[in-house]
Amino acid sequence: MILAKLKNGKELVLAGQKSGTVWALEPDTGKVVWRRDIGAGTPNGGIHWGIGLDGETVIVPVAHIGRPLPGAEAFDPKLQPGLYGLDVNTGEIAWHYSATPSCEGERGKKAPRCDRLYGFSGAPTIIDGAAVTGSLDGRLFVIDTRTGERLWTYDTLRDFQGLNGVAGRGGSFDAASIVGVNGLVLVGSGYGMFGQAPGNMLLAFRPQR
After folding, report:
1. pLDDT for position 209
2. CA 37 → CA 53, 61, 156, distances in Å?
3. Strand-by-strand arrangement of the 2-5 sheet
4. 86-98 average pLDDT score
5. CA 8 to chain centre
């Protein structure tokens, strides 16, 4: 959850749910200020490990949209797995970056169920107007938090030679696996649960100057 202070001085508690819903509540009363349904979630979908906030924009990763459920409110059928930017005041979708599968060549053999497991599950890390997030199929993305534009991407689903002399392999991004510190972005690549791609790499990236 995030305790957000708005420009008007009000505070909101923001939280994401595995069912695909983002909530904004009054912290003192628990009253719902707004909710935004981004799909219906699935056993391996919805909003998993956390959301982010950059100024007035809530950054929401969605692993899988799911399908409409009997008795539940309908959602926009155009929604796709990916990253969403919501207006913190209203919950309206300001932009979204749609994740797409990448199953060409050898990559399709390395990424388990790459036609379905390619959304964003782990909590995004917000750094200087950019959301750093990883996909279930092992790609690292940097997304502009103002526009939803993809700024950079890197495929970690490959073999590496570690500085300690141990051979390793990158895999899926999930859970809390990205942190920025001392001018570096550190990412843990590999998550062998729920049919995803295992790995054992800690990778360090430095912005180009």
Report:
1. 66
2. 18, 13, 31
3. 2-5, 11-16, 21-25, 32-37
4. 97
5. 28
CA 84 – CA 62 distance, rounded (Å): 8
**What are the C-alpha distances in Å from 175 to residues 50, 150, 199?**
8, 21, 14
Task: Please state, in angstroms and rounded to a whole number, the distance separating the CA atoms of residues 120 and 68.
Answer: 20
pTM of the model: 0.93
Check whether 142 has a pLDDT greater than 80: yes
What is the Cα–Cα distance from 38 to 60, expressed in whole angstroms?
Answer: 9
Sign of the CA dihedral running 104, 85, 62, 156: positive
Q: What is the secondary structure of 3-53 as a DSSP string?
A: EEE-TTS-EEEEEE-TTSEEEEE-TTT--EEEEEE-----TT-SS-S--EE
The values of phi and psi at residue 137, to 5°, are: -100, 15
Nearest-angstrom CA–CA distance, 39 and 74: 9
- Is residue 108 within a helix (H) or strand (E), and if so which, with residue range? helix 107-110
Tokens 């180009």 appear where? 208
DSSP 135: B
Q: Are 22 and 60 in contact (CB under 8 A)?
A: yes
Neighbours of 142 (CB within 10 A): 19
16 and 47 in contact (C-beta within 8 Å)?
yes
Q: What is the mean pLDDT of the chain?
A: 93
pLDDT at 168 over 70: yes
Question: What does residue 110 show for φ and ψ, rounded to 5 degrees?
Answer: -85, -30
